[in-house]
Write a structure and sequence with these properties.
The chain has about 425 residues and is mostly helical. The chain contains 13 helices and 9 strands. The protein has helices spanning about 1-40, 45-55, 65-70, 100-115, 130-140, 150-160, 235-260, 285-295, 300-305, 340-350, 350-360, 395-405, 405-414, and strands at about 85, 95, 185-190, 195, 270-275, 275-280, 315-320, 330-335, 370-375. A hairpin with a 3-residue loop joins β3 (about 185-190) and β4. The termini are far apart.
């Protein structure tokens, strides 16, 4: 019986492979047109778009592609306002985008790459260099799989997708003459255009940039616009306007300086806050890149930092690489620079929901400087409530000494 099953399996595998091969070829034939259009619109190689579509949607056979026209597995993110569906992926009931048709999915995929700053380096590459793009996507944090570039390039080679990066070669009015003896064949196209098809570079030689356009651009000389006649303003009016502008500038500068007060955390290295490992996250850094760098699941990174699922860090802040604790060695936190409860939870390395539980009267809005935030459970603690009369507003250096002088801490120490 086992022998018969093995023979049946050996006979079935080639048939399944042939069937899958046909499905993929049909997929390429169906969507090569939109891939080429998107390449002309955004500069993303058509071969890369098709290979990603084949890989992410199982050649259009995935549930997301069939039911919801999502060919690239793009999740909702915070900016998405269109239709949504919830499917199990890395975690249960994750939000995915829903499109009216496949073309919309391809266009949104192009915009997804084009409009995010951490993919900007891709668009400096040669638009027909699919090897550079495959490794560039991985480096930019598009996918977590280590062999993602190799998988894309295998699909490109297996189904000869690189040809769609040169749509002019298959035009009806084009004439091509190849020189097979050369390693880099020169293709002669109509209108005396030369197109050099370069061999695919290796991972270590991805430094190819877009070639400069050699066609001179016309010089446009604009005529100077007539300057409008300025009205006569009285001296007293000028003085009043100047004083108002100066006072506004001073107020703005004070506000800006207040916002720019940032704790001196180490950059590009790990440290601990309340016994939990953290890093200082710079605005614009990719959460996916951080997850890859420190070998953490992306959904856990959001969970540890109690953040919604977004692509980039919106403002400079602490990013924890482990779950924050439910207690702290500090008993209180005195608000400075109009902190929010979330900012306090990050600074103290304590879970936000626990701090909210200990301070039910405080909301998520910026708090007034000097407000006392409790870091322990006042309800189950016999300690008398702390008031502003018993605590001075202190800077970081004085804080520890002053806390030790509080009556309830003295009793405990004794």
């Amino acid at each position: 019986m086992k022998i018969f099953s093995t023979i049946l399996l050996v006979m079935t595998l080639p048939l399944l492979s042939i069937a899958q091969n046909k499905v993929t070829k049909d997929y390429v034939e169906k969507y090569k047109g939109i891939a080429i259009k998107e390449m002309k619109r955004t500069g993303i190689p058509a071969s890369i778009t098709l290979a990603q579509g084949i890989l992410e949607s199982a050649s259009g056979e995935s549930n997301l592609a069939k039911q919801f026209n999502n060919h690239f597995g793009i999740k909702c993110k915070t900016e998405w306002t269109g239709p949504k569906t919830y499917q199990n992926d890395d975690t249960k009931n994750e939000c995915f985008r829903v499109y009216p048709n496949a073309d919309s999915s391809f266009r949104d995929h192009s915009n997804f790459l084009k409009n995010r700053p951490y993919y900007a380096s891709l668009f400096e590459l040669d638009p027909v260099d699919d090897t550079a793009w495959a490794y560039g996507l991985k480096k930019a944090g598009y996918a977590t799989e280590r062999d993602y570039p190799q998988r894309l390039l295998k699909i490109i080679d297996d189904y000869e997708l690189a040809q769609y990066n040169y749509p002019e070669l298959v035009a009806e009015d084009s004439i091509s003459v190849t020189q097979p003896q050369q390693k880099n064949p020169i293709v002669v196209v109509k209108k005396d255009t030369l197109l050099v098809v370069k061999p695919r570079p290796t991972k270590d030689t991805i430094v190819v940039k877009k070639e400069l356009d050699t066609v001179p651009k016309p010089i446009i000389i604009e005529q100077p616009k007539p300057q409008p006649t300025l009205p006569i303003v009285k001296k007293d009016t000028i003085r009043t306007q100047r004083d108002t502008a100066t006072s506004n500038t001073i107020a703005e500068n004070k506000s800006e300086l207040k916002k720019k007060v940032v704790p001196a955390y180490p950059v590009n290295q790990r440290f601990k806050i309340n016994q939990t490992t953290a890093i200082w996250g710079i605005k614009g850094r990719s959460f996916l890149e951080i997850a890859n760098t420190y070998n953490i699941s992306l959904y856990k990174l959001y969970k540890f930092n109690e953040l919604p699922e977004t692509d980039l860090i919106e403002n400079d802040q602490l990013i924890f690489l482990g779950e924050k604790r439910k207690e702290s060695s500090n008993k209180i936190h005195i608000v400075k620079n109009e902190e929010t409860l979330y900012e306090i939870s990050q600074e103290e390395g304590m879970q936000l929901n626990v701090i909210k539980l200990y301070n039910p009267k405080l909301n998520n809005d910026p708090l007034k400087d000097g407000t006392i935030v409790y870091l322990f459970n006042m309800v189950n603690n016999t300690t008398p409530a702390l008031t502003k009369d018993t605590i001075k507003v202190l800077d970081t250096k004085q804080k520890s000494k002053s806390l030790l002088s509080l009556p309830f801490l003295k009793n405990k120490n004794n």
